[in-house]
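Duplicate of #3305? Posting structure anyway:
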């Protein structure tokens, strides 16, 4: 059993996988609380609900970012603690790659642009073709009409960073709304890494922040 943790955005999410098969997921997308209050409760609940002992876990996987600085630290810290306590491998999964795999399995487009909200008109994004080849690095991009006009036909954008641009998306680009990072998307990639023994160094691993942390005054949530 692989426990997957996703805290890179507003969605606090945990999932159990038997190999690459999703067993269960518990998640809540709500900006009025912090992930630190919910994550460990969700982990306990999903194990109890499925009558799984923590000792039955064979690995813990975590969404590695980019995304919220605070959210990523909460998820990675929880995953490290479990891996230390249970002496199981620590696996990291790219948040954007997990979004891509989810959408590739759900649609037949040629080019995929998963996007994570980076505030204002900026997103974290990466471009993939249908084969899974990354056509761009992970980058922070300010989106405007010029960006979308340059997108190839049969491109699809999705993720919690894409929804806010629906007013400027041209006809040759498809926008799929309501897609956000979830632990239920991590299993396929996590299992591939597990069988290939592609594990992280639990002691020294750091999530992929992409941008430096900038302290601010929280409003409804402490997530940046």
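Output from current build:
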């Amino acid at each position: 059993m692989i426990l997957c943790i996703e805290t890179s955005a507003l969605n606090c999410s945990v999932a159990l996988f038997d190999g690459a098969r999703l067993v269960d997921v518990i998640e809540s997308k709500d900006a009025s609380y912090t992930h630190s209050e919910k994550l460990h409760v969700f982990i306990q609940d999903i194990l109890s609900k499925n009558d799984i002992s923590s000792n039955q876990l064979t690995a813990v996987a975590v969404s590695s970012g980019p995304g919220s600085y605070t959210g990523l630290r909460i998820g990675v810290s929880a995953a490290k603690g479990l891996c230390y306590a249970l002496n199981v491998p620590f696996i990291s999964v790219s948040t954007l790659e997990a979004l891509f795999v989810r959408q590739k399995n759900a649609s037949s487009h040629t080019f995929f642009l998963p996007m994570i909200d980076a505030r204002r008109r900026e997103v974290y994004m990466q471009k993939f073709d249908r084969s899974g080849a990354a056509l761009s690095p992970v980058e922070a991009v300010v989106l405007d009409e010029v960006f979308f006009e340059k997108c190839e036909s049969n491109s699809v954008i999705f993720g919690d960073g894409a929804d806010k641009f629906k007013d400027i998306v041209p006809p040759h680009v498809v926008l799929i709304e309501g897609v956000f990072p979830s632990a239920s998307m991590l299993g396929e990639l996590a299992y591939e890494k597990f069988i290939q023994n592609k594990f992280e160094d639990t002691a020294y691993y750091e999530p992929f922040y992409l941008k430096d942390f900038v302290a601010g005054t929280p409003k409804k949530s402490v997530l940046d």
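Confirmed duplicate; merging threads. The longest strand covers residues 21-29. Residues 213-224 have pLDDT under 50 and may be disordered.
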